[in-house]
Amino acid sequence: MLTIALSAPLILAAMGGFTSERGGVINIALEGMMLTAACVDALAAPKFGPVGGLLIAIVAATSMSLLHWLVTQVYRIDHVISGMAINAVAAGGTNFLFLKFGDEARKGNLPSLPSWFFYTIAFVAPVLLLFYARQTKGGLRLLAVGSDPDKARLMGVQPIRVRFFGLLATGVFTGIAGVELVAYTGVFTDNMTAGRGYIALAALILGGWRAVPALLACLAFGFFSAIQVQLQGTAILGVHVPTELWAALPYLVTIIALAGFLGKNRTPAGLGRH
Amino acid sequence: MKGITKCFGAVTALDSVDLDVAAGGIHAVVGENGAGKTTLMRVLYGALHADEGSLELDGKPVRFGSSREAIQAGVGMVSQHYGIIPALTCLQNLILGAEGGTILNIKAAAQRAEALAKRMGFQFDWNSDASTLSPAGAQKLEILKLLWREARIMILDEPTAMLSPADASALFESLDRLAADGATIILVTHRLPEVLEHCNRVTILRGGKRIDEKAVADTTGSELAQLIVGGALDKPTTHRQISDGKTALQITDLSVKGSRGDLALKGIGVSVRSGEILGIAGVDGSGQRELFHAIAGLVKPTEGNITLDGVDFAGLSAADRIEQGVRVIAEDRHEEGVVEEWSLDENAALGLQRLSPFAKGGTVDSTARHAMAQKIAERFSTKHGGLNLPMASLSGGNQQRFVAARALCLAPKLLLAFQPARGLDLKGTQQVYDGIRAACAEGAAALVVSFDLDELLEQCDRLVAMNGGKLLEPLDGQSKDRDAIGRLMVGAH
Predict the structure, then answer these.
(1) Structural domain of residue B35, as residue ranges?
(2) Which residue blocks in A70-136 are alpha helix, DSSP H?
(3) What's the average pLDDT block by block, 10 residues per block, for chain A (274 residues)?
(4) What is the CATH classification number for the domain harbouring A118?
């Protein structure tokens, strides 16, 4: 159960990465979008209830996501730079917002939707995205634009439009992911995403930019995080393993797994291209 | 199309060009590189916007803001570099942009695709990745894409540039059939025999202007050639007698692993004498690429030796080999030949930066580089808007001229030319091969790969063929025998 709880935000964020990166938009800003959503939810939920908080958080994450679209697609700024900027704005902005307005929310026990709500979305979304990519017009166009925007354009597909909807979906997914974090802990803390956006991105890459393998990769990361929580401080075979090593475990697994999967390159060919 | 004008910066690519195409039949658009053929077609297809001029379709004025609108009006285009996305399946490529519903009906699509393919006499495995298609297969898929969209006007830009002779004639068979069914086909080409054999009318462009339009029945090849070039063509250089030069390049028993782990070259042995131009015939993917990469030092052979003028290449890096006089006219200009964002100046030194006169101490001498760039641009009269402009501002043919001239500029010892005249017209082709011959007259050896057998027969001193990673030499006295080489190309003896 702990595994599922720890994987759910990763899965949601990874699916957000999917709709963005399969369309050819590099998105390292998943982290910032999640963080924004978490903060906005923590501020809005006491006033507007759990559903209102969720919706407002989704709007906040989506506006970050569409900012990424505007900057990379309309103004054609480098995708990584835009993503870093968004992460920086989110880190500083949420800190500021929460210090300024967040007194009563800080006490914890924010109103939130039940966890099964988030888990259901997290496990249904990859299957829906699989169907979307294989069986729908929008999915085909998303993959085409992600593989070769120029050729797609020649076939009458408008990359800028396809990517708009891709990033819209990214905003929704990362929004839900951020709210899930707050729902799980009941509080918002500074920089509470703690790199989950990046781990989700790593899971997406590990899954070869495919929805269901990415889901499995997220579960694996969730599993290793769960192990870390359970085993922290215990000795194995008489050797005391420092906490830091357990904390590093998911990241180590990422590196090893990525190295093992590098042989087969599934990177969308149009990633970062206009 | 009436009075179409299009400028790129200071360069006028099209100067008030008219084009009248009657419905039904094949209409050819011919001209040299940079004459504006492709630009004109891209305007018609809505991919470029004309600065001036108007378009009429079936007597009604139209304006295409994007390719999307052109497709809706029934105009389809197969571009020089195919629009096939390798990551998608053949079927996905076919229906992309014209899916016909939010949820795809894959079954119905596959049925219609199969029916279209049958009508044209093609065969496809619809669910396989498009990356597995041969150039000829990609070309066929492109044509089906037009049919899928029910295009009434089909634009084909240099459709035979990548095809073997047999595939090219099969292509024209299908085009003739389409034209007979009432389709209007616009064929952009620089191969005059195609025009004379298969087209009804021909429009000649030169330097962005429409020179003339003729019924093909009323004209001849030499008249067309004159109209294209705007003067009499130089006679092709007659073949030289090669003095018994000493062996320059010697390859023995060379094997190279391909990208999929199987052997891409299987024990190749060949020698080229100094002063000789050796043509390598064969369809695309027979191992030509790997052979060139092995000689240039980009891949490590699993077995075998390469020596140039007695120097063993084993252990020499690509840079060392360039120092030994190896020069490459690369197959894929964009990938291996130029950096498109760099200026012509910078591209002039690309690959040669360690050699005199480019190198000065540890840096590149920009004065010498500029002078050299000027010489390179002048050699095959590359049309450009300034040497400080990026490579991307040049048309494909002009980039090719630049790349070819660069390979010839510093006394090459061994030329590796992969389709050196790719995308070039008659005059440009002749110039480039004359350049290669001149280098060989000064003692260089040349290896030339082309998929155009006639080009090789005309330009090379001796031919060999490659098939399935093996290099096959014709019997004595048959080294310029079209039939013998053709048989070797498909692996028969």
Answers:
(1) 2-229
(2) 79-101, 115-135
(3) 89 96 93 95 89 95 96 92 95 89 66 90 95 92 91 87 96 96 88 89 88 92 82 70 74 70 65 78
(4) 1.10.3470.10
Q: Cβ contacts (< 8 Å) between B104 and chain A: which residues?
A: 135-137, 140
Query: Any bridge partners for residue A87, and if so which?
Result: none
Residue spans of chain B under pLDDT 70: 1-3, 7-11, 33-34, 80-81, 162, 164-165, 231-244, 259-261, 490-493
* A141 inside 8 A of chain B by CB: yes
**What pLDDT is stored for residue B20 in this prediction?**
85
How many beta-carbon contacts under 8 Å exist across A and B? Answer: 69
Q: Which residue has the tokens 């809706």?
A: B72
Mutation site for B-interface testing, chosen from A76, A135, A155, A264 by largest number of B Cβ within 10 Å:
A155
DSSP string, A23-39: TT----THHHHHHHHHH
- Nearest-by-Cβ selection for B87 from A137, A157, A269: A269
Counted residue by residue, chain B has a size of: 493
ipTM above 0.90, yes or no: no
What's the per-residue H, E or C state across A134-200?
Answer: HHEHHHHHHHHHHHCHHHHHHCCCCHHHHHHHHHHHHHHHHHHHHHHHHHHHCCCCCCCCCCHHHHH
The reply to whether residue A156 touches residue B98, judged by beta carbons under 8 angstroms, is: yes
In a domain, A139, yes or no: yes
Position B379 in a domain? yes
Q: Which pLDDT score is estimated for A263?
A: 46
Q: Considering the domain boundaries, does residue A11 fall inside one?
A: yes
* Residue A271 at interface with chain B, using a CB cutoff of 8 Å: no
Residue with tokens 């699509």: B109
d(CA B351, CA B280): 24
Q: How far apart are the first and last CA of chain B?
A: 51
Which pair of tokens denotes residue A211? 């929805």
The answer to whether A229 touches A2, Cβ cutoff 8 Å, is yes
The pLDDT of residue B384: 84
Q: Which domain holds residue A111?
A: 2-193
Peptide bond into A46 cis (omega under 30): no
In a domain, A161, yes or no: yes
- Determine whether the interchain pair B66/A156 forms a contact, defined as Cβ–Cβ distance below 8 Å: yes
Of A140, A268, A269, the CB nearest to B96: A140
| Min distance A76 CA to chain B CA atoms (Å) | 16
